[in-house]
What does this fold into?
Amino acid sequence: MRVIPLHLHSHWSLLDSVPSIPEIIAFAQAADLPALALTDTNALYGAMEFIAACRQPGIAPLLGAELNLAGGHSIILLAQTLQGYGNLCRLITRLQAAPDRAAALTRGLTLSDLAPNRDGLIALSGGQFGPIDARLQQGDPTQAESFANELVNLFGKDRFCIELQIIESGDAEKARMLQALADRLHLRTVATHEIH
It folds into this structure.
């Protein structure tokens, strides 16, 4: 089975990740990966270096970002089209170029911020730091399903996936709950691991 990492951070996720772009590409080559997504936190700083580094070994580069959401959670957005890349840039600029940048990053984006910039983007639920996982962790499956429905309404069933992550003990049960939620809503799931 071939895998494609869809939740991957480089050293451009400042103070959060370690691997450089060349280290990531070397790993991808060694693992014979056909593609991988770079999803640095609130940034596309490494995008051009990443694309250039992927070309020589023939790895398909996928560009995305993990963006802060209101409520202290995050979501993964992957550019599906050139329009999606432009929308991703606009959302990152909204966070990074705000007059009070630190407050904007802490406050995060709302669904209202995402709505006009959703075209051409694929959304992943954010994994263990996403709003759906958080609501399940708080023992509130109804709120988790409600938020998942809001993301479905925003992106559509064809461009929103639930992330399943088993990182710590206890995550297997949460993954089963997320799979059941995805089944009820007829959503696709992706198995991810936050690579830092």
In short: The chain has a mean pLDDT of 88. The two ends are 23 Å apart (CA to CA).
